[in-house]
Amino acid sequence: MKKITLFIFLLTAFFGYAQEKKIERATKRFNQYDYVNSQEIYQKVVDKGYESGDLFKRLADSYYLNAKYEEAATYYGKLIEQFPEEVEPEVYFRYATSLRATKDYALSDKMMARFYDLGEDDTRAVLFRKAPDYLREIEKQKGAYDVSITQINSGYSDFGSALYKDKLIFASNRDTGGYTKRIHKWNGQPFLNLYQVDTSKVGQDGGTKFAKPFSANLNTQYHESSPVFAKGDSVMYFTRNNYSNGIFSKDSTGTNKLKLYRASYKNGAWGGVKELPFNSDNYTVAHPALSPDGKKLYFSSDMPGTLGQADLWYVVINDDGTYGEPVNLGNRINTEGRESFPYVSAANDLFFASNGHPGLGGLDIFLTNLDATGEDVTILNIGEPANTSKDDFAFIIDSETKTGFLSSNRGKSGIDDDIYMIRQLRRPEPLCEILLSGNVTDKNTEELLKGATVALYDDKNNLIESIVTGRKATFGFEPECDAKYLLRGSKDGYTTVEKRVSTPNLSGEIQEFLQLERAVQIAKPGDDIAKILNLNPIYFDFDKFYIRPDAEIELAKVLVYMETYPSVRIDVRSHTDSRGNDEYNRTLSQNRNVSTRDWLIAKGINPSRLSGRGYGESQLVNECSNGVQCSEEQHQLNRRSEFIVLSNN
């Protein structure tokens, strides 16, 4: 029994040691960017039931770095679930990116939120936090481009195109029928060469047969890709492995980097290949692009000073052919992720691929205008179908014809890149959202007006939306950008107010405050409400002081006014004409005054708000005094009631 137990122990130890050696070999290959071979080894170890945080991470990374996002998501998920204490912030970002490739945006956003919590100063996290509705922003751009597959794709990787005269130049690792194929360890495929095809052939059936090697002088046994041609078509820049004059160079870790090269067209052939002076054995410089005037060369690099895995840079091309010092495009464009494949259109629009800005998954294509400065700098995801949940990159476009090309691994395999033709239907524009808000108040008292109706009309007076204000008297609308509107506020007992509103073509907030005036304005101390309300005469029967029905109608107006302005105090003044005894007229007017005040008090007006007395004939408004012959109309002017405002606060 002891022998059996010892045998099992030794056997287990042997196989455990064997797996450790496999992992060690895989790790060495992984660190040398041999992701395919390391991936196979890690996967076989996992398939045998072995698990660890480091194993899951390396396997997930090997899939991630080869754009196999579905597989990467599986093992990042296992790492986070089973070994949470070993999870670094970058894992959450890569898991979120991989999940977007599977269109699981809800879980992806949760992982980005964790990523933000763990590394909130990371540009990618900040960008995500600033644009929580990034999917809606991307949706805004949907349909800006029409995308169709070209017929020049080979079943291998085809990407990174450039327009040269009437030809399309691109990189491909297609099978050319040779006996010897050098295999790139990163993805297990042959190395890339430059090919050419007439642009008229890219849409033809069997178009791949028209593709021919671009230049025997430029293509080598290693990578050549992403060319760009200067004005005049006699100078080109392109990417190649660190391979020059037959020497294949590596950095201190044994890794061969990418470099930029310049070639010239002379005597009917391309040649004179020269390495650019800002290359290095220790970092990658790749994917060139030229400014419209040809005076700046843009590229992607992880040289010192890079914010992330790869940043966009530029150098000035001097008149004598020398180059200035590399300049980083800064953190408005670059992130801690990967920014690559720049292209500058004739309109000075910079298109580039990034996995650091919020996108649909993998690399997405983004747009910014290089003429913009400060707050005007906007980074736009150009939306579907130009972008997908896979890797989309290497965008180029002819600004005159509005046609161009992009590269993507959106095909069925999701591994090999293909070239797609694009047609611009409209220019992508920033998502424009306007909030038109404010409140409604009484113009005189500044009281918030609950129950006011605020309506928004378009410039043709069509009602768009109306709102009835609540306790806080606020309103809010979301009008279209760059449009004209009419804002109308109304409320019973108030005059209607209208305002013209023009919205900008950029997102923002507009505040409008509507102040409504009562249909009858509040009187000042000393004003006679009878005149403000244009009261008809309040008649009393001869020698009587009771309130007649026709007088009630006029007093009702005073009642409503006092109810509307509850702070107003009034002095009621009653007058008679000169006919009759002075003392009698004084008594009669006093009785009529009391009747008037009693009527208002009976209707609910607080007695403290009313004062007054009868003045008899002591304050005539005309010459109709005792003994003066006057008409009935003249005497009527003296038989009056006044409602003088004493205070209104």
TrEMBL record:
SUPFAM superfamilies: Cna protein B-type domain (SSF49478), DPP6 N-terminal domain-like (SSF82171), OmpA-like (SSF103088), TPR-like (SSF48452)
Keywords from the UniProt entry: Cell outer membrane, Membrane, TPR repeat
InterPro entries xref list: 6-blade_b-propeller_TolB-like (IPR011042), Bact_OuterMem_StrucFunc (IPR050330), OMP_bac (IPR006664), OmpA-like (IPR006665), OmpA-like_sf (IPR036737), TPR-like_helical_dom_sf (IPR011990), TPR_rpt (IPR019734), WD40 (IPR011659)
Cellular localization per UniProt: Cell outer membrane
TPR repeats (start-end): 53-86
Superkingdom in the source lineage: Bacteria
Residue span, OmpA-like domain: 527-649
Coiled coil region boundaries: none
Record-given protein name: OmpA family protein
Organism: Dokdonia genika
